[in-house]
Design brief:
Helix content is 12%, strand content 50%. Strands 46, 49, 50, 52, 53, 54 and 57 form a seven-stranded mixed sheet that branches. Strands 19, 22, 23, 26, 27 and 28 form a six-stranded mixed sheet that branches.
Length: 697
């Protein structure tokens, strides 16, 4: 058995490493032979592979078996060629190659992470290795500038190579403006933003109203090349107009859209530095450079004032307007405010205000002109000085002087007497006039009483005196503490103090009690006929007002959140049953109010009619009784009045009768009495005998 390389025939590269024979089964033998060698690229010549033939001879019979070996050669000479500068919109090329290699070798292009389409050209070297050239052809854009162009070599999972190059793409400037309209106030600073992207770098210029703008001026400042913001400080009305940002490089010039700048001008108010009471003030409100339709108006405090206006036109065609206000000042005008109001059509309004400092002679007043004190005690004599500018006190509490006056004096009388108590009616004050508490808490209503001689204090609620022995009132005579406050304690309280000189009342002290909703009734039983229009009302009282109602039917919450729940009784099974309502305010939630709604049957209808008939009969009987009581009372009153009149007439008759001898007088007394009675009775009711009648009802 032998192994021979056939192309070309050679045995010198082969080294016998092992051989042997073994009997696999009776009469069957197996022989093997192995050779070792070092493969190299020459084994691929002259064919792109090597042929090995294994020959076995047995009993003059020879058998051959060919084997082929292909030796792969790792790639070498991997390199990439890229143009140093590309132009946006112009086709460009890049090349990637390996000088030699044999096997499965691929070359691929990537722009950042995006695979690019390319073509590969392969040639065979003299030693049968391959020379591969991969060519990329594409048209770059301005957005490709700064991206990485990469050629990737793949030979095996363990053999990968990459070569990258950052692209430099020249392109025309791209100019963008975040905002196209700016509106600013005069004398402020504005930044007109302009963003520029280009390669190579651009030269930036600005124009205003299509005329070149010089940024060398101190009021203008230009930012960096990538963000050439135009900053204008101390903006003037003449800066209003249309601005354009232009960028230029070797690939061309690009202009931004028009940027409109609108300047809101403001008036300038000039007031004399010194204002004196009694003299005329001349103040001006001025606009140096105005445009369009605008007006200037003066206001003194909130009153519109008459003024005069002069207008002239500047060289730049803007308006110079001066509005003059003339006003004679008084000392009461000190610290008052004058305002100049600018109205520029319907665009905007501006107001400039100044506080007047009016100088005037000192005004000296004394809170009290007479003081009575006990000898040996201390006393403070007070006087008030008001002036502008501030005054110098010439003599304590005697006079004051400033730039506008001679010394002014106020006479104070000090009388020293032995100690005498000063008496007067009480002085009553309340530290607080409004109290707000929640039900169940405690509150103390306070008032301060100062009097000589001492006073007695009385508290009233809603003009009704409060019993001092009530268990809720547990504080002293100048305060009232209410424990466990209820809604019944809500009302108007007054603290009154009384001494020998009179009574004084405090101002109204209002106590407001907040409490959670309280239902008028917990359980309601309602009976209706099928088809009736039914509404359930959740009637509660609360402070503050109820903010939410929760209705439930059969344990399920209904969507209705108001205080009235309409029920459709046309569907009895769904309409009748138990309903509950809960009312909520910021203090709490009421107890559930239960409504039992049931269908009216024939029996219940008869009962209702019987009840209604009974109520009607009861009402009639009560009405008849009332009329009878009124009639009897009227008759009784009339009879008593007549009896009283009869007695008065009898008394007058006795007083006017002349005196008689005693014996005769006694004899005639019964007769006179009978005649008087008879005459009186006949005068009132002839033929009727009067008797005193009384009724008890």
């Amino acid at each position: 058995m032998s192994l021979v390389k056939h192309n070309p025939p050679s045995t010198e590269l082969l080294t016998l490493s092992d051989s042997g024979t073994s009997e696999k089964m009776p009469g069957v033998w197996e022989s093997y032979i192995s050779y070792s060698f070092m493969p190299n690229r020459t084994m691929n010549t002259p064919k792109p592979f090597s042929e090995f033939v294994c020959t076995a001879t047995y009993l003059n019979e020879t058998t051959t078996m060919p084997n082929w070996l292909k030796v792969e050669v790792p790639p070498t000479g991997f390199n990439m060629t890229v143009s140093p500068v590309a132009v946006a919109g112009v086709k460009t090329f890049a090349m990637c190659e390996i000088v030699e290699g044999y096997g499965i070798i691929t070359l691929t292009w990537f722009l950042d992470s995006v695979e690019m389409n390319s073509t590969t050209n392969t040639t065979v070297n003299a030693d049968l290795t391959e020379h591969k050239v991969n060519t990329l052809e594409w048209t770059p854009t301005e957005y490709d500038h700064g991206k990485n162009l990469t050629c990737q070599l793949f030979y095996s999972p363990s053999y990968r190579r990459r070569i990258s190059s950052m692209l430099s793409v020249e392109f025309r400037p791209i100019v963008t403006t975040p905002s196209l309209k700016y509106s600013v106030n005069e004398s402020t600073t504005v930044c007109l933003r302009c963003n520029v992207k280009s390669y190579p770098a651009s030269t930036i210029t600005w124009t205003k109203d299509n005329k070149p703008l010089s940024v060398e001026s101190g009021r203008y400042h230009l930012g960096r090349a990538s963000e050439p913001t135009l900053t204008i400080s101390n903006v003037m009305v003449t800066d209003r107009g249309k601005y354009i940002c232009s960028a230029t490089n070797i690939r061309g010039t690009t202009k931004s859209k028009e940027i409109v700048l609108d300047v809101k001008f403001k008036p300038r108010v000039t007031i004399p530095p010194v204002l004196v009471a009694g003299r005329k003030m001349s103040a001006t409100c001025e606009v140096l450079h105005g445009y369009g339709s605008f007006s200037l108006t003066w206001y003194f405090e909130s009153v519109r004032m008459n003024s005069s206006t002069t207008t002239s036109v500047n060289a730049d065609l803007t308006k110079h307007v001066v509005n003059t206000l003339e006003l004679k000042l008084a000392r009461e005008d000190n610290k008052k405010i004058v305002t100049c109001k600018l109205i520029h059509t319907d665009k905007y309004k501006r107001m400039i205000s100044r506080t007047l400092i009016v100088e005037y002679s000192p005004i000296v007043t004394a809170p009290s002109l007479n003081y009575t004190v006990e000898e040996g005690s201390s006393v403070s004599l007070e006087c008030n000085v008001r002036s502008e500018p501030p005054s110098t006190i010439v003599e304590p509490c005697r006079g004051a002087v400033n730039n506008h006056s001679f010394p002014l004096f106020t006479k104070l009388l000090l009388q020293i007497l032995p100690l005498i108590a000063i008496t007067d009616s009480p002085i009553v004050t309340a530290p607080s006039l409004n109290y707000t508490v929640e039900e169940g808490s405690s509150v103390s209503l306070e008032c301060n009483v100062r009097s000589e001689p001492p006073s007695t204090t009385v508290w009233t609620k809603d003009d009704v005196p409060i019993d001092r022995d009530t268990t809720k009132m547990v504080s002293g005579p100048t305060s009232r503490t209410i424990s466990n406050v209820t809604e019944m304690d809500k009302g108007k309280y007054i603290c009154s103090a009384t001494n020998d000189h009179g009574t004084t009342k405090s101002e109204d002290i209002i106590l407001d009690v907040k409490y959670f909703p309280k239902p008028d009734s917990i359980v309601h039983e309602l009976v209706f006929l099928v088809g009736d229009t039914v509404s359930l009302t959740c009637s509660v009282k609360a402070n503050p007002a109820v903010t939410k109602f929760v209705w439930k039917h059969g344990g399920k919450t209904l969507p209705e959140t108001g205080g009235i729940l309409p029920i459709d009784t046309s569907k009895p099974k769904q309409a009748f049953g138990n309903y509950t309502c809960e009312a909520t305010n910021p203090v709490g939630t009421s107890k559930p109010i239960v409504f039992t709604v049931s269908e009216m049957t024939e029996g219940s209808l008869k009962i209702i009619h019987s009840i209604q008939d009974f109520k009607l009969m009861t009402a009639v009987l009560v009405l008849v009784g009332c009329f009878a009581f009124i009639g009897i009372g009227a008759v009784t009153w009339k009879i008593r009045q007549k009896h009283k009149r009869r007695q008065e007439i009898s008394k007058q008759t006795e007083e006017n009768e002349p005196a008689l001898p005693q014996g005769e007088n006694e004899r005639n007394a019964p007769e006179l009495a009978d005649n008087a009675n008879s005459e009186s009775a006949n005068e009132s009711h002839p033929g009727i005998e009067l008797k005193e009648i009384s009724f008890t009802v």
